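CORE FACILITY INTAKE
Project code: CF-77B
Contact: R.S. (postdoc)
Sample description: multi-component assembly, four entities in total
Requested service: structural model of the whole complex
Turnaround: standard
Below are the sequence entries exactly as provided by the requester. Do not edit them.
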Amino acid sequence: MATLADVARHAGVSTATASRIINGSSKPVADALRARVLAAVAELKYVPNAHAQMLARSHRSAVGVIVHDVSDPYFAEITRGLQRVAEADGRLAIICNSYRQPDRELEYIDLLHAHQVAAIVIAGSGYLDAATAARLDDRLQAFEATGGRIAVIGRHEHTGDAVMPDNEEGGFIAAAHLFDLGHEDIAVIAGPAALTTTADRLAGVRRAAKVYRRSLPKGRIFHADFTRDGGYAVTDLIQVKFPEVTAIAALNDSMAVGALASLRDGRRRVAVIGFDDMPIARDVTPSLTSVRLPLTELGERAMRLALGEAGAEPRVEHVAAELVRRESTWDR
Amino acid sequence: MATLADVARHAGVSTATASRIINGSSKPVADALRARVLAAVAELKYVPNAHAQMLARSHRSAVGVIVHDVSDPYFAEITRGLQRVAEADGRLAIICNSYRQPDRELEYIDLLHAHQVAAIVIAGSGYLDAATAARLDDRLQAFEATGGRIAVIGRHEHTGDAVMPDNEEGGFIAAAHLFDLGHEDIAVIAGPAALTTTADRLAGVRRAAKVYRRSLPKGRIFHADFTRDGGYAVTDLIQVKFPEVTAIAALNDSMAVGALASLRDGRRRVAVIGFDDMPIARDVTPSLTSVRLPLTELGERAMRLALGEAGAEPRVEHVAAELVRRESTWDR
DNA sequence: ACGGTCTAGGAAAGCGCTTACCTCAATGGG
DNA sequence: CCCATTGAGGTAAGCGCTTTCCTAGACCGT
């Protein structure tokens, strides 16, 4: 592995000069030397050691991103936005998947901290459990204490810069849409009970039930795991236990897609509304009515917050949810 | 930012001892000291500087991954496999999106090289252009020369460890399926002409045409960009220009989904076969017949190659493509 | 021609950590 | 009872780079 010293020796200059030439320092250097050094770099195929650079110049550049799972379209879209902005700013974004395990999130925070990232962006639902939330915030604060910046997407655990999709309002919109269409007997497929996103969206659904004076018994609320197969399994169950249900509100699109598949296989005609409006929502059949969250934008804004100046006041940007009507919901 | 020296001072020991305790070195240490050091770590919220560690111990651990675009389900699945194996091996996987730009691939190779990763995995189609391929291989060789390991997925540019999906055979399978069903007039939606994946799959389609003694005029082969919208636009065109076409072979699922949407909007009944068998293939309507590639497995195997012993002989694993019949293709 | 001012380039001090090597005290054997 | 041995802990030399400070030659004005 060629080092700067090798290059300098090869070109017959000091490491200081070599460094200055390679990094395009403002200090003027004779053209002859410059050419010799550059030639040496090419010949030795020299690639600077990023770790040594990080250590020597003490400024941080890379940014860390923690999401639940990039291969989930929801996070894939958010990540796309995150990356786009990071890249435009000339920064390496290190993406970590927690696979929905809080412990892994903690590990990754420390890992990113250890890697001296300039900022960490955490996307994806937080955890209702107070102890878990506290541990998380504790690590985050330790990171901030060393000058790191943090931005979260839709998380309550940490007070600081945040982009907050309005999950509660979205839940309201979803349920209200079903009620508006005249559905009385609805079932809800919520996400894991431990997640704040589930709680928030569910709160909106419950508020809608109250506003519309509809009853929404506990038994009509099911918890799945935010995956397509989870939605499928629960919908199978709903069809058997509650044949009178005419509409289902799934609290994310993946589960809604599963619900649609189950309904198709069971040859039942039940309205379904999803949440998030992932790209595939328009391509399933019937195309999926959903509550749209501008996922890519969420990512872009969060990264901009993370890369912006550290303000004294935490900046919290609220992002509205919006109904996208398609074929999977209809008048009763 | 607390340093090891701070911790050592705080605990009244040398940095050597502190380091040994923190890293669980095999050297025995008095329990009293251990406790003091650990207490200091907790109190100061010390997090070791990963860059300094990398520099001091000279072994590499992280691995780099370069894909076209993680938010594309094709790469999302591959990445999932890649990550799973990397994580199981206790390594950080740094994921980079080239967004299909060869130059960015080069940049990322250097960047990962600079970050002293132990291995680089490159997934996604390579480039037919000889000059581009040569530049790529050049960078890769420079990386290998420093002891780095490389594994590629479906790329021809670099000779070394590789996992090769059988794209040619897959193309054959797709076209043969259509011919078997009695379709004579077929159109092909290929990917960007500059990509090797496009060329390989197309070669298989052409071979099928030859074997089945069907003509496949140039005009029936369209190039789109492997995206859903690209497939949609091309299919709009096909419907207008070639109303006699009864079946379309799209050379990836995203474009096939777009084709399905266009056909639905145009109220035409045309058979469609995709390629890759992405998870959503079963949830579009009609559900998509496709040529299955075990994407997650592709990723897992590539990462295993990258992390395995460096063998003298390059190991090349071929992965078969397989027809998955669903509702989007039918007898003529 | 001489002192003073620039300027191009080099010497060397770290950045935060690991680890080979050294020290010193305690221990045991002869 | 003394010396060799062991073992716990410290000292310090880097890892590869950046950057401050310094040097020595070139250049200017008088």
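Facility notes:
- Chain A touches chain B through 48 residues (CB under 8 Å).
- Chain A is about 45% helix and 15% strand.
Invoice: internal transfer
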